User: Fold this.
Amino acid sequence: MQTYHAIQWMDDQTLQLIDQRKLPQEFTHIEYTDYREVAKAIREMVVRGAPAIGITAAYGMALAARQSDATEVADLRAELAQAAEVLRAARPTAVNLGWAVDRVLKRAAAPALTEISAAREAVLAEAHAIYKLEEEANYRIGQHALPLVPEGAKIIHHCNTGPLATGEYGTALRVITAAHEAGKGVHAYVDETRPRLQGARLTAWELKQLGVPHTVIVDGAAAHVMRTHGISAWWAVIASRRTAILPTRSGPMAWPWRRAPTASPSTSSGRPARSILRCPTEMPSRSRSGRRRRSPMSVRVRSRRMGRMSRIPPLT
Assistant:
């Protein structure tokens, strides 16, 4: 049972986010009352994952409406348009971000909204609706995929697709957690997912919170694990070409999961029209103390050669 919430609207005027940069060593929240700070949180990856970024941006728009001193609906709409541009610029390639912001702007533009208070409430209601849409869709992913998961399945999971990345339940990870909740005895092999180690840091942390048996593997070990450990399936949301070809060579079923708002309908392939090169500061290989980042304490880890099992020591 999920006991944490990556994104929460608090006290009708505050957005609270889990600081994903500090996981798994620290579990902390940051509260926001200014949409510009929300944009900074997206840019600095306090929050990450396409659906979660979209939800966060929608609540950023709600904060902009709450902050506004406008007394006329037309002025509020103009301010929301400015806020939308600030939020879009935080992560220009995030399709969900633009999709969520556009939904809020469309709702605010409704001709029936002639009172400033009603317009503000409509913006917040749309942000809540976006959150609810993601929550319900993610839950259904788990329910629909459950018949596809055999008893005792061993599943490789790439990147992070749990509640941290989606707001609630998760997408590809929800299939694993739903099977676990159904008593199917699944075991997840979690790619570390370089360079930011979303798998080793975040997915392993989430699976530990949810009580799902799992093992962290280095990315380079995925093909070997598929060949030698009876892997039933391989799942990710949007995988690299390297990981995408492995299942075809090694046997297990492969299902890359992509929620509709995450795809880009304006391109023939559904991929975003723009690509982004990460800033070097977004790809740290070591912690501030100089020691390598680690997964949560006591998570099992295998080396590339799949040698002896080791326990990860806590960071000091």
